[in-house]
Amino acid sequence: MALVAYLAAWPVPIEPVAWRAPPAQGYVGVHAPNERLKGLKTIDLGGEIGPEHIAFGPDGKLYTTVASGAILRMNADGSGRSVFARTGGRVLGFDFDARGRLIAADAMRGLLAITPDGRVEVLADRVDGDPIRYADAVVVAPNGRMYLSDASTRFAPADWGGTFEASVLDILEQRSTGRVLEYDPATRRTRVVAQGLSFANGVALSADGRHLFVNETGKYRVWKIAVDADRLDLLAPAPGPKARVLLDNLPGYPDNLMRGRDGRIWLGFAKPRNPTIDAMAGKPWLRSVTLRLPRALWPIPKAYGHVIAFTEDGRIVADLQDPSGAYPETTAITETADRWYVQSLHAPVLGWLPKP
Question: What is the pTM of this model?
């Protein structure tokens, strides 16, 4: 009786809502199983883990963020590694602006600018008086404006044990409180571009600078949103001409987005879909019960390496997989002329492949 009472009534932090998960198509068609991501070459990170985002700076160096909160800088082959900066938080995504500053989405602190000598400045940690609770990804437009995802306005990593823990709570709850923000350095103003996303994640800019591509992790899809949209409600039955779903019913949880070469945009799946989780979509009470179980019993999807590339019109042009999941939580690819660097949430090394 005590166990039943506990499973039925013990307080949990989420207030889940019902939603309809699209029937999973599985690994078929363009996503047919393959091993093109298997056998990665690796770069040592000196004991650090989780090269979540990788980019090359104006100085030609490779930069990556890791779970400890550090931002590492090294040569393209991994030599000359050093700590470029520590923000006191956890940087997930970053880009560089025209002044050579590293513009960081810090899940604990908001939108930051880091000068080439490592000095950290907070650009924005609020929008209309509301805290930016979970800055996740950022891209800098040619006009200097910065677009970032605020993954959840309900669960801040600083309050819930870290970025992974907060993401699990938000996706289980499905209240779709994520949003896309714009910061204008000329006016120092932050505004809401769009809201109503179930864990707003990766952000990339179209080649003409007029649209954003945004991953909605909790609903397995990618949106294309006009940069001049203003407080667009993506939960509305018809959000209007300024936004549309570009890729839907994907086989996993989409994470980062990275511009590649020849018009490609790379997307990584942190985890594959899980039938148990999809089956609970219309049963919010069951998701509450799940959080009352020991963490070892949570239906966390298995490890499965998977990245894809698509064009701006939504055509998938590459699909790389490693069913073994040996390199865990693949979040995207950073592409150079001769290499693919593979981003990861928890890998103890930086993986890469020579391009065929």
Answer: 0.96
DSSP codes, 283-313: -HHHHHHHHTS-GGGS-PPPP-EEEEEE-TT
Cβ proximity of 55 and 94 under 8 Å? yes
- The sign of the CA dihedral 4, 6, 7, 8 is positive
The pair of structure tokens assigned to 180 is: 């896309």
What tokens appear for 323 in the block? 């069913």
Nearest to residue 143, comparing CAs of 220, 75, 228, 84? Answer: 228
Token code pair at residue 322: 């490693």
- The number of beta carbons lying within 10 Å of the beta carbon of residue 207 is 10
At 242 the three-state DSSP class reads: coil
Q: Any bridge partners for residue 175, and if so which?
A: none
The share of the chain scoring above pLDDT 70, in percent, equals: 97
Is residue 85 within 8 A of residue 115, CB to CB? The reply is: no
Amino acid in the structure at residue 305: G
Task: Look up residue 170 and give its two tokens.
Answer: 């938000």
- Tell me the three-class secondary structure of 258-272, residue by residue: EECCCCCEEEEEEEE
